[in-house]
Amino acid sequence: MALPTKHIRSQGPVLAMLGQTAVEALRRKLTGKAPEGVGPLPGPEIRAELPPRPPELVRDYVRFCGGDPGAYKHQVPAHLWPQWGFPLVGKLIESLPYPIFKVLNGGCRVEVNAPLPIDEPLEVVAQLINIDDNGRRVVLEERVVTSTPSCPDAVVATMYAIVPLGGGDKSKPKGPKPKKTPERVALDATELARWKIPADAGLAFAMLTGDFNPVHWVPPYARAFGFRNTILHGFATMAKAWEGLIRSRYAGDVGGLGSFDVKFTKPLTLPAKVGLYLEAQDAHDKVWVGPAPGGSAYLVGTARAAKPD
């Protein structure tokens, strides 16, 4: 698939947010000043009304994710929510006293209550719900609710952003930190799909969503942060897993998935060959993206089918 350069013009709000974040991070570094304290939580709501998503953008995005563009002629994929939600999320963290340039995406939960009609404007509400600060890292819980005139609260996304602080609880005894057990694909998991993800996948996803964080498409920048090469966006991994479930688990029914709760457990360095794995359980499916059964997982998730009408 050729790089979708023509869609960059649709990414103005996200690009503006990234620019504002970079300027604010530079200002804090130069002045040594950051906002003081955190207001009461949940925080105030930020609202935006946006025009319908361009059908060509939706088509090329679905194709990138491995889905069937024909199945989305009348609706927007719920997992595209970062494309319009990130600018509002960026505004939520601007006033927080944390190193915003270090923010990492730890995972998210997406609940689908109704399809998003492709020809209707979007009504988006974002809110900072909670902050968990243990001195070493901060977890920001942010909620983005997307509605349309005919479908209120159609998609509810809760994002968990992680900010490393490098400190810690000084009252705790010193000593070696316990090693974390890496998340692994279950040995008996069933492989649903296999993907060969090219080196430019991060740049392609950036053009489709506006998330031009250089760690996803500029190799020297990624290596400066300790990666061997660029890494794929966590949301790109989630979107590919989502569409893989639609194809293999829900027989192509784009309304078959009711909720998807994922953690991004390991950076996916590009290029890569990975698989989508599933273990069916009584009330939900356990999902992994990883190299093979028993291998370290890049994504661990819980998928639940949509409730019958």
Structural class: alpha+beta
Q: What is the string of helix and strand elements?
A: HEHEHEEEEEEHHHEEEE
Round the Cα radius of gyration to an integer and report it: 19 Å
Tell me the domain tally. Answer: 1
CATH H-level homologous superfamily name:
Hotdog Thioesterase
N-to-C span: 37 Å
- Helix proportion of residues, in percent? 10-25%
Q: According to CATH, what is the topology?
A: Thiol Ester Dehydrase, Chain A
**Content of β-strand:** 25-35%
Overall CATH class:
Alpha Beta
Strand neighbour order, sheet with most strands: 1-5-6-7-3-9-12-11-10-8
Biggest β-sheet, characterized?
A: 10 strands, antiparallel
Q: Tally the beta strands.
A: 12
CATH architecture: Roll
- What is the molecular shape? globular
- Chain-averaged pLDDT: 91
Spans of at least 5 consecutive residues with low confidence: none
Instruction: Count up the helices.
Output: 6
Commentary on this structure:
With 309 residues, the chain is an alpha+beta fold. It has one domain (9-30, 44-168, 182-305): Thiol Ester Dehydrase, Chain A, CATH 3.10.129.10. It is 24% helix and 30% strand. The chain contains six helices and twelve strands. It has helices at 12-31, 55-64, 82-94, 201-209, 219-224, 234-248, and strands at 46-50, 75-76, 104-112, 116-117, 122-133, 137-148, 151-164, 190-197, 257-264, 272-280, 285-290, 299-305. The strands form two sheets. A ten-stranded antiparallel beta sheet has the order 1-5-6-7-3-9-12-11-10-8, with helices on one face. β11 (285-290) and β12 form a beta hairpin. It is globular. The two termini are 37 Å apart. The mean pLDDT is 91.
